[in-house]
Amino acid sequence: MDHIYISSLAMMNKPLEEMIHIAKERNWALEFSSGIPFRKDAESLYLDATIDRIPHNYFPAPEVPFVLNLASANYKIRRQSIEHCKNGLWLAKKSNAPFFSAHAGFCIDPDPRELGKKINFDIIVNKEENKTLFLKSVIEILQQADLFGVDFLIENNVIASFNLTNQKGNPLLCCESKEIRWLFEEIKHKRLGLLLDTAHLKVSCKTLELDLIEEYNNISNLIRGLHHSDNDGLVDDNRHMLNDYWFLPYLKDVTDKVQVIEVKNIDNETIQQQVNLLVNGY
């Protein structure tokens, strides 16, 4: 398994220069991800780094925070999100990264401070409009992906029970296999792939009362990259993986895919343990 990256979330309290230094010293590849605070030189630090690297989702963070939402009914937010993804593809091309990836869209526009927590919204979700906008956004980004010769991956969203109500519905797209498969049936494009976040799928299946393994099997053929971390099935809190990590038996299916360790805020020795777990399966 030669395609393992360490998410910047693993070293989230360190300056970007130190993350790059540690990755170079330890011969780790690095995913520059959400959670890196805004700084004017973030893009140049990424481009100048002499390590294998890949850009993801909300990197580089803009000076004025916003929630990247490719399905937003707010024109300004959707345009901002599309342009951010196009720039991500450019960064991927310049750094010889295999792809740029972004989260599937939302049917609401949460406050940036609400991400990962309870999202307050007072509308009844009507997904059809947002799904149409999401498709348009992805198609436009894929045109850029074609020009650059870089893949564009969509990451499955996570729906926790505190963000799902009978009255208002699920405000997030692509949490379950049915909706993920819908995206790939609507857009058949060689540059489009799935970034499977195994922890997201675990929580979403618990919330939606779906069978985790069945859901995985329904989308396994779409996977081009993976995010690995664990949780209790209730909240996506990016815990480190142990020998009971649910995805371990399926690692043999994805040895040729990009693997990203997305465990939050751990020391270098624990990062190496997580690498060894993916490599050896124990």
Q: What would you note in describing this structure?
A:
By secondary structure, this protein is α/β, with parallel strands linked by helices. It has eight helices and eight strands; from the N terminus they run βαβαβαβαβαβααββα. The protein has helices at 16-26, 42-48, 75-94, 127-148, 177-186, 198-208, 212-219, 268-280; strands at 4-7, 29-32, 53-55, 99-103, 151-155, 192-197, 223-228, 258-261. Strands 3-2-1-8-7-6-5-4 form an eight-stranded parallel β-sheet. Helix 1 links the parallel strand 1 and strand 2 (29-32). The longest helix has 22 residues, at 127-148. The protein starts with a strand and ends with a helix.
Distance between the termini: 14 Å
* Strands in their spatial order, largest beta sheet: 3-2-1-8-7-6-5-4
Mean pLDDT: 92
Indicate the low-confidence ranges by residue numbers: none
Q: What gyration radius follows from the Cα positions, in whole Å?
A: 18 Å
Give the strand tally.
8
How many strands, which pairing sense, and closed or not: the largest β-sheet? 8 strands, parallel
